[in-house]
Structure formats: structure tokens, C-alpha cells
Write a structure and sequence with these properties.
By secondary structure, this protein is of the alpha/beta class. Helix content is about 40%, strand content about 15%. The strands form two sheets. Strands 5-6-4-3-7-14-13-8-9-12-10-11 form a twelve-stranded mixed sheet. A two-stranded antiparallel ribbon has the order 1-2.
């Protein structure tokens, strides 16, 4: 594929930088499975950042015939057709499938660092991350709540990190939770008009820049049942959510709501908006995981580079068994290519 920049000049497509993820999880399994289907599915070229010896061992465990090429990022695109390109970090991975240990934590962290550096320095077009095990990284001294916060730190400029926003995307539905990995009690405490406005601004800008939607339509859910029922089921929708929507509209953003969450996600309703902005984690993730459990993609908006990821975890219970489904990783690779092309056009 060749994309064109805004002046119409052809630019060479760069490969995607794929991180190792948790070595004991299914990241290596689905990476190998995706590469083996590269021709059948016409996948964009990518390279894995990690330990080629570790990957060779996993391929043998899975009974897969995969050729590997240890290359630099600049040579990955040329190697992709005949071998899985692997860019080394110098950190070895030793964990066995389904048996996480802290000895491989630095391999996972180094892979993320290198992927971000490659994209920011122009060697790759986007970062695609395999799932990590935060508990394993914490034991090794990892100081960030998760993947997204680490990526934001790596993207910091002049000492200031951008505010990342998590979007779950599928062809049927895109959702963004305003509050994420906190208890429901804490989510309600965190929710504010300012947070909703800031989140929606980032979503609108990201859909414009990376999805080619010049004026994306945002549907904002209410917090309470029936969006508060005019205050009889809670005051937050009138006091917090509605003022945020009014601010967004004054700024020219196509935002509507607050809408009752229980009627936002049926087929006819989904056709009326491009992204649903929801007030807390499960309000957003239950519908998309119901509709697109196998091929949903986690997208981080608000970063100065593209980042996508499979919408699932490490699945230690099936790592190394050959039963891991690569569908979500394949969707993440395809979406990263699409977003890179949109930004280049």
C-alpha cells in the first residue's frame, strides 16, 4: 500500500511496530498466527520487537513452521513477505507459556519503549501492543497503572504528558468510557463536566485526524437510569453531563445527550452516531464486547502517535496451546494501517 500526504505526493508505507507483550501470555501465539495468515488476509507489514530465540521456541511449542529474520526496523518491510521480522532490544524473554515470572518483565517494557521510539523517529507508522500482565510488571517495579499511562509518559513533551483516552472500536460500534479502571463509587466521584468535555474533545479530534470523520457525531450517555428521569433518578445528568454537552455544542462539536444507556446500543440507534461516550467502564464495554468480542480493538486517542491493541488480556490458561484466536490482533493491525493512511492523506 502507498498513501499520499495532504499535497498529493506519494509516500512509502512504513511497517507497524508490534510489541512483545507478556511473554508468558498469548501475545507470541497470536503474533505467529497472524504472520502465517499474512498473504491470505493481505495484512499490512509489521515487525515484532523482542527476542527471536524466545519466539522460535514458542513456534516449536505450537508446532508452527515460521521463519524469522532478525533485522533493523528499516529492513522489516522487505523481510515481511518471507519471514517474521524481529527487532531485538537486548532483553531476553524466558517465561514459559502460562507461567509468568518477573524475569521477562524487562523484555516487555523494553519492547514498548522501542516501539514508541521507532514511531516517533519515523521508522514505523504505528504502535500495536500485545497484552501485558500488569501484576507481573508491578512485581518488577513498574511504576505506572497500565499500558496507556506508560505510553503517555513516553509521549511527554517539555515534561508534560498528554491525556490519553481509551476507545474500543469495531465496525459495528465505537465507545469511549469517561472514567475507566476505578470502582463505580470512585467513577461517580471522579465524573465532572470538565472531564467529560476534555474527553469528548480528544475523541472528536481523534476521529477527525485518524478516521477521516470531519465532524464526528458523538452520543453521550447519562450516568443514571433513564438519564436521570428529569432529576427524579439522580441529579448528575442535569448538573454534570448536560452542561458538558452544551459546552461541546458551543464549540461546534456534534454532541447530543444525555441519552439513556439502555436504548443507545440497538442497531437503529447505532446508525445515528460515530462514537458513544459513556460515563463509566462497564456502561461502554459491555455493549461492544457483546457485539464484537473477538474482533474489537483498543485504540488510544490523544497521543502524538497511533496506538492500537487487541481487546483482550494475556489468557495464560491457553498460552502455548494453539487455541488462541488472533482475530483481535488482526483487527488491531488493520485498524492501525487504516489510521496511518488517514493521517497521511
Amino acid at each position: 500500500m502507498r498513501a499520499r500526504n495532504r499535497k498529493g505526493t506519494a509516500i512509502s508505507a512504513r511497517p507497524l511496530a508490534l510489541t512483545l507483550g507478556e511473554p508468558a501470555g498469548i501475545g507470541p501465539d497470536i503474533t505467529l498466527a497472524a504472520w502465517l495468515r499474512r498473504d491470505e488476509l493481505k495484512l499490512p507489514s509489521f515487525y515484532l520487537i523482542g527476542d527471536a530465540g524466545f519466539l522460535e521456541k514458542r513456534a516449536r511449542t505450537l508446532g508452527l513452521k515460521v521463519r524469522f529474520a532478525e533485522v533493523g526496523a528499516a529492513d522489516a518491510g522487505a523481510a515481511f513477505a518471507t519471514a517474521l521480522p524481529v527487532v531485538a532490544t537486548g532483553e531476553q524473554a524466558t517465561a514459559e507459556p502460562g507461567k509468568p515470572d518477573t524475569s521477562s518483565a524487562q523484555a516487555a517494557i523494553a519492547s514498548i519503549r522501542r516501539a514508541v521510539a521507532d514511531v516517533r523517529e519515523g521508522r514505523a507508522s504505528a504502535v500495536v501492543t500485545n497484552p501485558i500482565a500488569k501484576s507481573v510488571l508491578y512485581q518488577a517495579g513498574f511504576a505506572h497503572p497500565g499500558h496507556t499511562e506508560f505510553l503517555a509518559e513516553l509521549a511527554a513533551a517539555n515534561g508534560k504528558a498528554p491525556q490519553p483516552v481509551m476507545m474500543l472500536w469495531s465496525p459495528m460500534l465505537a465507545v469511549v468510557p469517561v472514567t475507566i479502571h476505578v470502582s463505580l463509587r470512585e467513577a461517580i466521584a471522579q465524573l465532572s463536566t470538565e472531564l467529560i468535555v476534555t474527553t469528548a474533545r480528544i475523541v472528536a479530534a481523534g476521529l477527525d485526524r485518524s478516521f477521516g470523520l470531519a465532524r464526528p457525531r458523538l452520543a453521550l450517555s447519562g450516568l443514571n437510569p433513564h438519564a436521570g428521569e428529569d432529576g427524579s433518578l439522580g441529579s448528575e445528568d442535569r448538573a454534570i453531563v448536560l452542561p458538558a454537552i452544551e459546552i461541546l455544542r458551543r464549540e461546534g462539536i456534534d454532541a447530543r445527550g444525555p441519552l439513556p444507556a439502555d436504548t443507545m446500543f440497538h442497531e437503529a440507534a447505532r446508525k445515528t452516531y460515530d462514537c458513544a461516550v459513556c460515563m463509566y467502564h462497564d456502561q461502554a464495554l459491555i455493549p461492544i464486547k457483546t457485539l464484537a468480542f473477538d474482533d474489537g480493538v483498543n485504540v488510544t486517542l490523544g497521543l502524538p502517535f497511533i496506538r492500537t491493541s487487541p481487546d483482550h488480556g494475556t489468557a495464560f490458561d491457553i498460552a502455548g496451546s494453539g487455541r488462541a484466536n488472533p482475530a483481535s490482533l488482526i483487527a488491531a493491525l488493520r485498524l492501525a494501517e487504516r489510521m496511518a493512511a488517514a493521517q497521511a492523506s
